[in-house]
Amino acid sequence: MSDNPFNILGKESTPINQGEAVSNVDKNSELNEQIKSLINSADLFLFMKGTPDMPMCGFSANTIAMLNSVGKPYKTFNILEDMDIREGLKAYSNWPTYPQLYYKGELVGGNDIITEMFQSGQLQEVLK
């Protein structure tokens, strides 16, 4: 393992980015509908700080590294660019922190849960 706590993969090479940042939200719809629409726009959806190409916190960078390592395409939304969604998602998911990963519309969890799942091989198994 690396001495860097955010280098969960334990190596210096970076897997190919499988993520696509989404920024278009229909502001004419109700907030929970906006959130639901984002989540349902991909099987694997991550609300994060920053984008897959430029994560803005270590936990988001860590989660991106794990998702890229799994090799499945995913979409992301930068919660730093939309305070309504940032705050509304906390109530929607009943989860207070970011990043938040959703798989097929269901909340998987945050960085700590994703890391545990990745290290045990459960994340890779679920996403097969």
UniProtKB/TrEMBL annotation:
UniProt-listed CDD domains: GRX_PICOT_like (cd03028)
Keywords: 2Fe-2S, Iron, Iron-sulfur, Metal-binding, Redox-active center
A Pfam family it matches: Glutaredoxin
KW ATP-binding (keyword) present: no
Domain of life according to the entry: Bacteria
SUPFAM superfamilies: Thioredoxin-like
Gene3D superfamilies: Glutaredoxin
Glutaredoxin domain location: 45-108
NCBIfam families: Grx4 family monothiol glutaredoxin
Entry-linked PANTHER family: GLUTAREDOXIN FAMILY MEMBER, MONOTHIOL GLUTAREDOXIN-S14, CHLOROPLASTIC
Protein name as catalogued: Grx4 family monothiol glutaredoxin
UniProt source species: Halobacteriovorax vibrionivorans
Phylogenetic placement of the source organism: Bacteria, Pseudomonadati, Bdellovibrionota, Bacteriovoracia, Bacteriovoracales
Gene: grxD
